[in-house]
Design a protein that fits this description.
The chain has about 150 residues and is of the alpha/beta class. It is about 30% helix and about 25% strand. α1 crosses α2. The mean pLDDT is about 90.
Length: about 150
């Protein structure tokens, strides 16, 4: 598994990292986000949407709806697994079709649904290390995710 560490000093830097991911994304890419409350998962998702050519202000945490979809260069399927009872519940709301469709999937609270995520995914672990500082660990689990890191220049 290839791993890269990125240190973000601000919300803008976290958005910019997300934008790099969105610009490099191809249909079928899966991005699994890990981190506690306030770690920057939704900020990163906003940046991904911006990189796909969408309006980052449209992206909000899907916590109460579990899934939000945004139209851009690729459709962004933005899942939030925080309130799911079991990993299987993610599949019940259409995740499998999204994983293997023509868009990109971003899953917040991915640790809650690891059993049902595609094995080939980009895992992003966000850790708060200061008021606005985040240590962001990008881990490519599989050749598709490796290629995504490569297209990002990481």
């Amino acid at each position: 598994m290839t791993e890269r560490i990125h240190v973000s000093q601000s919300v803008d830097e976290t958005l910019a990292l997300g934008e790099r991911i969105g610009r490099a994304a191809l249909p079928g890419d899966v991005v699994a986000l890990f981190g506690g409350l306030g770690a920057g998962k939704t900020v990163l998702a906003k940046g991904i949407l911006r990189g796909l050519g969408g309006d980052p202000d449209d992206a909000t945490s899907p916590t109460f709806t579990l899934l939000r979809q945004y139209q851009a260069r690729l459709q962004l399927h933005h899942f939030d697994a925080y309130r799911l009872g079991t990993p299987r519940d993610l599949l019940d709301i259409g995740a499998e079709e999204a994983f293997y469709g023509g868009g990109i999937c971003v899953i917040e609270w991915a640790e809650r649904v690891l059993d049902v995520l595609p094995a080939d995914r980009l895992e992003i672990h966000l850790e708060v290390s200061g008021e606005a500082r985040r240590e962001i660990r990008l881990c490519a689990a599989g050749p598709r995710a490796e290629a995504l890191l490569g297209r990002m220049g990481l």
